[in-house]
Amino acid sequence: MRGKFITLEGVDGAGKSSHVESIAALLRARGRRVLVTREPGGTPLAEKLRALVLTESMDPLSETLLMFSARSDHLRRVLAPALAEGTWVVCDRFTDATVAYQGGGKGVSLELIECLRGAVHPDLEPDLTLIFDCPFEVARERMGRTGKALDRFEREGREFFERVRGTYLRTAAAQPERIRVIDASGELFNIKKSVEQYVVSV
């Protein structure tokens, strides 16, 4: 039986990445074999492309093509084999991020992104996508607390943030059967409770 594919999405600073391992632990406790991975990244080649995308200045189209190049390698080397053998995959970002960041945030044609989606993973969509949502002020405050240098997406301003956030929410509204939006601005206990509720229902 094919494994389930769970993706985590959201604006930078929403805190989604901090839930990846707890989701994996929850699934393992329920007897699932689990793989944790991320995008862009997940393979040696895709990690090199990730470093380029996060640090090098480039036009939005080049950025989009690199995202899908990394995704294609990740899919063929990691995602597809794992799912085929029955492993559940928990992935930090997938194509919804490209729609939100490069499409909504930077104005790349959504039709082009859909064509690339169809070329790279025509038969694969997540079984569950959790979108962690929070206001700009909350995200900024959290990123400031980490003390880490911000990548070029995290350095973007409010207008970019709001375009990305709005695209995520529109995507969620259009696909309620797959996507669940989590209020990531509240108490951690409540966020975890919502996450667990959705994950165990897959």
Written account of the structure:
This protein is α/β, with parallel strands linked by helices. It has one domain: P-loop containing nucleotide triphosphate hydrolases (Rossmann fold, 3-Layer(aba) Sandwich). It has 8 helices and 5 strands. It has helices at residues 20-29, 44-55, 60-84, 95-105, 110-120, 136-146, 158-174, 188-199, and strands at 5-10, 34-38, 88-92, 128-133, 179-183. The chain is globular, with a radius of gyration of 16 Å.
Distance between the ends: 14 Å
The number of distinct helices, counting runs of at least 4 residues, comes to: 8
Helix/sheet category: alpha/beta
The whole-number mean of residue pLDDT values reads 96
Low confidence ranges:
none
Strand order of the largest sheet: 2-3-1-4-5
| CATH architecture name | 3-Layer(aba) Sandwich
What is the gyration radius calculated from CA atoms? 16 Å
Overall number of structural domains = 1
From the 3D structure, determine the CATH topology. Rossmann fold
Would you list the SSEs in sequence order as H and E? EHEHHEHHEHHEH
Beta strand count: 5
Strand % is: 5-15%
Helical proportion, percent range: 40-55%
CATH class: Alpha Beta
- Report the CATH superfamily: P-loop containing nucleotide triphosphate hydrolases
What oligomeric state best describes the polypeptide chains here? Answer: single chain
Shape verdict: globular
Sheet with most strands: 5 strands, parallel
